[in-house]
Beta-microseminoprotein-like
Amino acid sequence: MQKLTIIIWAAIFLCIFSRTHGFCFLLQNRNTLGKIAVTCRLPRTLFLLGETKRLKHDACAMCTCKRNGLYCCSTRGPLPRNVPAECKVVPAPNCDYNVVKTKDESKDCYTGRLLVTKYRHF
């Protein structure tokens, strides 16, 4: 369990502080008594061996169940830095982020123009 916690925190760290687009991580299966795992699990999600699914909470991440565990990759870009206090960061449907006005999320933070695309919250 401790190893899984370290892997999850490492993935979160990479997601937040990475300056490259995307990241991948492996959540290892815990085999009991030498049995070969035929499923992988995330909270409320079951994967059969060889199955690939897009994550429900993040459409920019895909996971594949392999014998050694659940291998996941995200194509979401790095978080914007130095966001003004009157603005906030929201995920964009193109797997990037929008910086929008806090009081009017339909407007771009820097230009004040209406955003062309809709976005969704996690």
Remarks:
- The longest strand covers residues 23-28.
- The chain has a mean pLDDT of 77.
